[in-house]
Specification:
The chain has eleven helices and twelve strands. The chain is an alpha/beta fold and about 325 residues long. The strands form three sheets. A seven-stranded parallel sheet has the order 3-2-1-4-5-6-10, sandwiched between helices. Strands 7-9-11 form a three-stranded mixed sheet. Strands 8-12 form a two-stranded parallel ribbon. Helix 3 packs parallel to helix 4.
């Protein structure tokens, strides 16, 4: 009989891909999330409505699982959401750790983020030795993910068998949300994004992240941590590739970073008035001018992790949005 794998945040972008990969291995999956959504439609999974902020419900949902993948998280590009971020990304992680310990879970795989790690010095590549964010000059989301990692480390000190993965900017198929970057790609493909901002980010395919996380579950020693990165690509080059793939001309105006930073508060306010997520905020602009050098050497060496070419991911993602 296949042992049960529980996945929190199972209907999110990474969750939708992880659940499919686990099912392809013949494993029994228990999907834990606040909503069912279309991300898991037609899949042979046990779906349980769970809020990671409710420790009692969470403990009952985890009970009987051999492995737990903790993906549930609140992603925010705003500066004023600390209470919500703390409740989900910090206390929620603490609840997951406690549930795993009390239920005798064999292994926890915790999804953190590259944003949990300090960016400076920018001329030195980021690897797993980089300190976690602490200073309040970092965005609330970054601080919440760092604090969540600390909760996992406390659990390891209490005897929890856990590993941590830190993906960079994720894109790829089964992006039902869509994600922030998925929304930007759709904007480029449908000429709804009139302006580009100078800067870029390290982008990684969601399927490679899932593969790296499963390999970490299977191979890594308890307490290990792995950066799962891909390739740094500028927003200008992203737009050029989207144009080449779709035939839709890229935006003509490349906004310099200084102007984008000055305009960000107004753009954020207008987006919120319209009931939309801001694409360019102070937080996202900070990320676009962060460290360009992010090393996944440890994951490649210890997990045989590989990141596919960015253009291949872009083609597959745009094709999925068209047909998915």
């Amino acid at each position: 009989m296949a042992m049960t794998v529980a996945v929190t945040g199972a209907t999110g972008h990474v969750g939708a891909n992880l659940v499919r990969a686990l099912l392809a291995q013949g494993r029994s999956v228990r999907a834990l999330d606040l909503q069912d959504g279309q991300a898991l439609d037609g899949l042979d999974v046990e779906l349980i409505e769970v809020d990671v902020r409710d420790p009692d419900v969470l403990r009952r949902a985890v009970d009987g699982a051999e492995v737990v993948y903790h993906l549930a998280s609140h992603i925010s590009l705003l500066m004023n959401e600390w209470p919500l971020l703390q409740s989900i990304n910090v206390i929620g992680v603490r609840n997951v750790v406690d549930a795993c310990l009390s239920c005798g879970v064999r292994r926890l795989v915790h999804f953190s983020s590259i944003h949990a790690l300090t960016q400076e010095p920018l001329h030195v590549p980021i690897d797993e030795s980089r300190p976690l964010v602490e200073s309040r000059r970092y965005p609330p989301y970054d601080r919440s993910k760092a604090a969540g990692e600390r909760e996992v480390c406390k659990g390891i000190e209490r005897g929890l068998n856990a590993v941590i993965v830190n993906p960079t900017g994720i894109l790829g198929p089964h992006d039902y949300g869509p994600s922030h970057f998925g929304e930007a790609l759709l904007g480029l493909a449908h000429r709804r994004l009139p302006v580009l901002v100078a800067g870029g980010f390290d982008w990684v395919d969601v399927r490679d992240v899932v593969d790296g996380a499963i390999r970490a579950e299977e191979r890594a020693p308890s307490g290990a941590k792995y950066i799962l990165s891909g390739q740094w690509v500028s927003m200008r080059d992203v737009a050029a590739m989207v144009a080449e793939i779709t035939g839709v001309p890229p935006p003509r105006f490349l906004c310099p970073m200084w102007l984008a930073r000055v305009s960000a508060p107004l753009a954020t306010g207008l987006a919120r008035l319209r009931g939309k997520r801001p694409l360019y905020s102070g937080v996202s602009l900070s990320a676009l001018r962060g460290n360009r050098n992010i090393s996944h050497d440890r994951a490649s060496r210890e997990l045989d992790y590989h990141a596919r070419p960015f253009r291949q991911t872009l083609v597959d993602t745009l094709r999925w949005f068209e047909c998915g």
